[in-house]
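Consider a concrete sample entry:
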Amino acid sequence: MVSVSVVIATLKPRDEIEAIQCLEQQAFDDFEVIVCDESPVTRARNEGIRRASSDKIVFLDDDSRVRPGYLRKANEVLETEAAYAGRTVHPADDVFARHFTGHYDWGDDACYVRHFWGCNMGVHRDVFRTVGGWDEQMGWGHEEKELARRVSSKFDILYDPELIVDHPYASSITEYWRKQYKLETKSPYYWSKCNISRADQLKNISCEAFDPLNYIRITPTATVVEAGSTVAKTAGRLRGFLSHPQQEADRGEVPEIDRPSQSADPSE
């Protein structure tokens, strides 16, 4: 059995996946890569967990570019930690790097956090046995936040700044707006899972939409990006809210993930 299983959910052919090209350049070679093309992405990741031969499971996007030493460090971290979030870098000097990717980086010191991102994270299999797998009703859009909420209620999530991945946040302003719209269509479903009532969901949407601070930043370009993003988010949230009027009764069951383990339990 290998030490680390890397799960990548993608529709790309294996030989076109940037992440694999970077992984093959790692000095650490005791790993496997599991490519899953099921839809949605959460179902693909769950299939990857089931197929993984290791209990130390790393999740990357197909365009995640790991830095040297990443897998060796991931292997070390998951020996003692239940889950980790790495440092993710938007590899460009643009408006996104300067104003919109602060949530990717918690600083230069390791600390415990409450979130992780699917382009750069690792979880021990025993965590999935406890909290269940990815919510397959969510697809792409807050799926990491939903899983992290369950994980952090039972385990610690370590942020390790040495686990660095270069990953593009957005290639253009219009692409960013489209991503924000798509992401926020899932917000009402996520809020329902957090026991937020329909009335409070609508209040949240309205307050965010009419808050003038959500339309300005410190530079003209950033202001344009932020204003357009707020409009896109509002439209996405309204679509999600109106498309699923029965969400409070339909919060989705997460699948159980269970396989015999041959490694030690992670520390809680």
